[in-house]
Amino acid sequence: MNLETQNPQALVEAYREAFDRKDVDACVRFFADDAVLKFLFGTFQGRKHIEDWHRDRFAAEVQILRVDDLTVEGNRVVLNAIVTSRKLKRFRMDEVKGTGIFEIHDGRFREVQLGPRRGVASHLDWHFR
User: Fold this and answer.
1) What residues contact 51, with CB distance under 8 A and at least 6 apart?
2) What span, in angstroms and rounded, lies between the C-alpha atoms of 48 and 2?
3) Could you tell me where the DSSP H helices lie in 1-129?
């Protein structure tokens, strides 16, 4: 896939497909060399750290269960999804509502922010057993 020719929505959807396949190399190719990924309380800068982040997520068996909506605002894509992981399940949470904000420049992710669903108190987004 030629990332430079993809529109923002198609880029995020293709990234999600690579994420679902747990393909670290494919996931990392979506990020600019100097990209920043912000996840909860951590910041991961540069492809090496972003690659490590993906390896950690895949080791924790993170899965995107459902995408609730995806909106495009110029070069910015906001994705609301439901996720789960082995780690969440250890805390008796079956799923968590999350938001991903993707800033895209020159066909690559420049900054990605992943965290709890925006606009709703986070404790309402957790589904406990």
Assistant:
1) 24, 28
2) 21
3) 8-20, 24-29, 47-59, 86-90
Supply the pTM of this predicted model: 0.87
Q: How many residues does the chain have?
A: 129
User: What pairing do the DSSP bridges indicate for beta strands 108-116 and 31-39?
Assistant: parallel
Question: Measured between alpha carbons, how far is 111 from 34 in angstroms, rounded to an integer?
Answer: 9
- With a CB cutoff of 8 Å and minimum separation 6, the contacts of 19 are 27, 54, 64
Angle at 9 between CA 81 and CA 27, to 5 degrees: 70
| 23-73 pLDDT per residue, tens | 999 999 999 999 999 998 899 999 999 999 999 999 999 999 999 999 999
Domains of the chain, start order: 3-128 (3.10.450.50)
Residue at token pair 């190719």: 29
